[in-house]
Amino acid sequence: MKQFSFKKIAEIILFTLVLSLAILLRISNVLHQNFAFTYDVGRDLLALNNIIITHKMGLIGFTTGLQGVFYGPWWYIFLLPAFVLSNGNPSGIIIYMNFIGVITVILGYLLGKKIGGSLLGFMLMIVFSISPLLIAYSSQIWNPNIAPFFVLSTIFILYLIYKKNSPWYFLLLGFITALNIEIEIVFGSIFFIYTTFFTFIYFYKRLNLKKIILYFLGLFLVLLPQLLFEFRHNFIMSKSFLNFLTGKSDAVSSSYNFISAFVIIRDLFSYTIFNNLALVSILSFVFIIILSIYFIFFLKDKSDLWLARKFLITFSFFYLIFSYILLSLFRHTIYDHYFIGEPVVFILLISLLIYELIINKNLIIKIFSILIFIVILILNTVSNNFVSIFNNYTGDASVYKNQIQVIDYIYKTASGKPFKYNVYTPPIFDYTYQYLFLWYGKNKYGYLPTQNSKLDFFIIEPDPGFPDRIQAWLSLRRNDGKMISNKKFPSGIIVQKRD
Fold first, then answer.
1. What is the dihedral sign for C-alpha 441, 447, 449, 454?
2. Sequential DSSP letters for 98-148
3. How many Å is the Cα radius of gyration of the chain?
């Protein structure tokens, strides 16, 4: 009993320490106000503010990046509780993103503990906690950045289906997997297709009509808002999506994407596990491929826990192959966020494989595997993460605190007088400043800019590589008032006062 109590207390202490580390690594950007506040964040917060004012949620959200194709409202539904609780404060919403990242860490621990006990649980928990890429995902308000949570949730539900035969898990699986499409349409579509095929092939002996119906009911519930929109608007999005797939305006060769996809996956793996050490990452990738093939096809262990781990190794390994092949055949340019789910799969796969080696009876293999895991921990902490906790860097024009500095300067310079503003920003859309004046300016200084004022502020963000664009923009406005002052901030943002 004493031994059991000591072990339990030690696990609680270790769990608390790792969880505290995960929180600390994610919240540092909030403490320093160093998180990115880009035009799409401003767009989303303006949309949420409109939902609060009108009490209406639309059937579609923002554009997917494919012309004429829109996401559903799920990203706004996901952000709405944080927006309400924080009263629209971007820092509060970043804390919400941090929270989702920490929940992902806990979910990794629970999954590992179920299939390998406390050792595997803590291995997964630690790597999820300190992975530079997952920390970065938890520190920015962007819809693809919640993919780790939903990918790991999908894998966890698959494990529950593997262990239990409840048909209702299929409804949950269909719903959660389909939500990945709402996170990032290309990644989510590939992940949904793969998960569907894998589930139906692996569990074909256990499938029945009820489970199949429940699975696709989950998909239907997620896509219902867009389907209603499509019926109302003569399937406009479906036509746009088909035009994209068959169009040639952005078409690239398969051979180009074959190489491009490999480079993206290699870099993602490197940043996820080894903090961008390319050679170590490539060797480790080969190590993963060889071990995965051995464990899936040649290891003859029949224990229940091993078979559960083999199930997850199989799912993860073949997902990497499936997504790589499919995106290699993609007719259009591929981007990093098309692989946004890969980091979770990398962490799960490499942790499972190292764990199998650690529990091996061969002492040399056991010691070697422990050393590999220790190296992973060192590379992901000392070289990057702990520095970021104390590094209050200036950053560029997209950093939240730099934009707040500009808003404060304008209001203080205006000294309570009415003013208007114009913005030059490389993304063209000035959603960030629209929102910051609406939320921060109004709450702190009590009034909003107005177009009926002679006092005018020009906010000019740097446009690296294209200084002529700024000059052309200023040239068009050379007669818009007399310049009184020209203030340049450390971020590179310039504010001109004109009257």
1. negative
2. HHHHHHHHHHHHHHHHHHHHHHHHHHHHHHHHH-HHHHHHTTS--GGGGHH
3. 25
Distances (CA, A) of 482 to 424, 452, 496, 499: 18, 17, 10, 5
- Residue 432 tokens read as 């960030």
Strands (E), 210-366: none
pLDDT at residue 252 tops 70: no
Scanning the structure block, which residue is given the tokens 């764990």? 355
3-state helix, strand, coil in the chain (%, to 5): 70, 5, 25
pLDDT in tens, 425-448: 998 889 999 999 999 999 999 999
- 251 beta partners: 332
Contact 160, 201 (CB under 8 A): no
Burial 317-356 (b: 16+ CB within 10 A, else e): bebbebbbebbbebbbebbebbbbbbbbbbbbbbbbbbbb
Instruction: From 193, 116, 182, 121, select the one nearest 149 (Cα to Cα).
Output: 182
Q: How confident is the model at residue 250 (pLDDT cuts 50, 70, 90)?
A: low
Residue 208, exposed/middle/buried by CB under 10 A (0-12, 13-18, 19+)? exposed
d(CA 135, CA 112): 20
Residue whose token pair is 């000392």: 382
Instruction: For the chain, report the end-to-end CA distance as a whole number of angstroms.
Output: 80
CA distance 44 to 435: 10
Q: Within 13 Å of residue 168, how many CA atoms lie on the same side as its CB?
A: 0
Give the pLDDT mean for 96-109.
Answer: 96
CA–CA separation, 127 vs 134, rounded Å?
Answer: 10
Q: State percent of the chain over pLDDT 90.
A: 55
Lookup: tokens for 9 = 């207390």
Q: Residue 5 burial (CB < 10 Å; 0-12/13-18/19+)?
A: exposed
Q: Which residue has the tokens 């529990």?
A: 359
Helix H or strand E segment including 413: helix 400-414
Is the separation of the CB atoms in 134 and 101 below 8 Å? yes
Contact 360, 294 (CB under 8 A): no
Report pLDDT digits (tens) over 280-323.
Answer: 667 777 888 888 888 888 888 778 888 999 999 999 999 999 99
Q: Specify the DSSP class assigned to residue 424.
A: E
Q: Which residues of 412-445 are buried (b: 16+ CB within 10 A; e: fewer)?
A: ebbeeeebebbbbbeeeebbbbbbbbbbbbeeeb
207/147 Cα distance (integer angstroms): 28
Cβ proximity of 334 and 327 under 8 Å: yes
Nearest one of 433, 392, 408 to 489, comparing CA atoms = 408
- Three-class SS of residue 55? coil
